[in-house]
Amino acid sequence: NGSGYGGAIDPEEHLSKLSKGRKPNELRSLAPMIKLPGIKWLAGGLPSPLNFPITSISFTLSSGQTVVIDDPKLISESQQYCLDSYGPTRLRHWVEKHVKQQHDPPNQEWAVCMTCGNSDAIDKVMELLLGPGDAVLVEEVNFIAASCYLATLPLKGIEVVGMTVSSRGLTADEVERSYLAAAAKGRAPKALYTIPTGQNPTGISIDLEEKRKIYRLAQKYNLIIIEDDAYYYLQFPAAQTCSEWALEDMPGLSKLGPSFLSMDTDCRVVRMDTASKFIGPGFRTGWLVGHKRFMERVAQHAMVSSQGVSSMSGIMIEKMLEAWGHEGFEQHIRVLQLNYCRRAELICRALEDHMGHEFAEWSSPTCGMFIYVKVKGLQDTRVLLDRCYKEVVAVAPGSFFSVTKGHSPCVRMAYSTATEEDIIEGVKRFARVVREFKASEAEC
């Protein structure tokens, strides 16, 4: 109703009917007993540790450090079900300290629940908050897994309201316009889902002042902000100047921009983080931060779906972080940032050299793994795919990321995994595709 809802939220009014009705796994309630001295555990269906095949784990980090895990208790734990509903206990405690240090949420009602990465988290958070008859605000272009997932929500009776992402990222004006348009049709959105930093596919970040305005709108309309910050750790200086920078010039951990969580006085932010982008996606590990009641409901969901984070991944990451210490982790993040910074600069230079602003528009990235290129004079870049196939170059048409599956004149280029030579050659080949297509159109 727009009358203003500033102040601590009542989590119960935001939970979906399904989430409220989910019953706890009663067997799991006995899990704390397993730690009692002298316990005779005959309750649970845990596989026998005597049959676990691994007796030690050893791996070498890129820093040259070797990590050895040979404690029999840890080795057994790494191959067993995770008995903590909120995720591997020691790793979760590290995350709690990290969240306090990195974001220092002003409302103290928050808790942490581990996830299997942000794709897993999206499913759990949407089910936590939304049910038939509800609506959610989302960026109209979104990362492909989210876009495909969001496309299923209407089948559950949930309306997906797409918001335009401008050259400055998502704006408060667009949030309010979209909210009011949906509310006027009788479906006032309950939540706002956003990728605020290095947005996928556009690579754009929302600036601090715009975040503050969006947060005030969330208070005004009683929205939950779902902050999917997968690229948070991949921030770097403006790409066109990357060659001038060294490790000490990277933001590291201490100079990363403020998050929605860091301004969350009401506990109305549910934040998603993932180790996929700063350690590796194969670990399938991430975490959620939000109101402790929300996290309790997510943990209950995990116990009847994913069964929580892999115990093996949890222990390996825990020992990796322990080996690094804070300084080593900071150094790892800086190396990562410098790598992406230099790659971003390289692809920008290649676009300047081979595409030019005659044929395309783009913004220099300051975060993430992608650059979003608008091809001038095209309605939909899918028309270029056959020529791309012949030129042996792959780019992702912007329409692939649209939650409404509309046309797009853009393509997403990833500079994260290609070699330097392949980045340059790939841009050169795509420029040739565009020129030849435009020439053939002119002949017609």
Summarize the structure.
With 444 residues, this protein is an alpha/beta fold.
Shape: globular
SS-based class: alpha/beta
* N-to-C order of helices and strands: HEEHHEHEHEHEHEEEHHEEHEEH
Residue share in helix: 25-40%
Major β-sheet profile: 7 strands, mixed
User: How confident is the prediction overall: mean pLDDT?
Assistant: 92
State the total count of DSSP E strands. 13
How many helix segments?
Answer: 11
Would you mind describing this structure in some detail?
The protein is 37% helix and 14% strand. The protein has helices spanning 17-21, 72-78, 89-102, 118-129, 144-150, 172-184, 208-221, 292-303, 311-359, 385-391, 420-443; strands spanning 57-60, 66-69, 110-115, 135-139, 159-163, 191-194, 224-228, 269-274, 286-291, 360-361, 370-375, 396-397, 410-414. The strands form three sheets. It has a seven-stranded mixed sheet with strand order 3-9-8-7-6-4-5, with helices on both faces. Helix 7 (208-221) links the parallel strand 6 and strand 7. The mean pLDDT is 92.
What order do the helices and strands come in, and which of them pair?
Elements: H1 17-21, E1 57-60, E2 66-69, H2 72-78, H3 89-102, E3 110-115, H4 118-129, E4 135-139, H5 144-150, E5 159-163, H6 172-184, E6 191-194, H7 208-221, E7 224-228, E8 269-274, E9 286-291, H8 292-303, H9 311-359, E10 360-361, E11 370-375, H10 385-391, E12 396-397, E13 410-414, H11 420-443
Parallel strand pairs: 4-5, 4-6, 6-7, 7-8
Antiparallel strand pairs: 1-2, 3-9, 8-9, 10-11, 11-13, 12-13
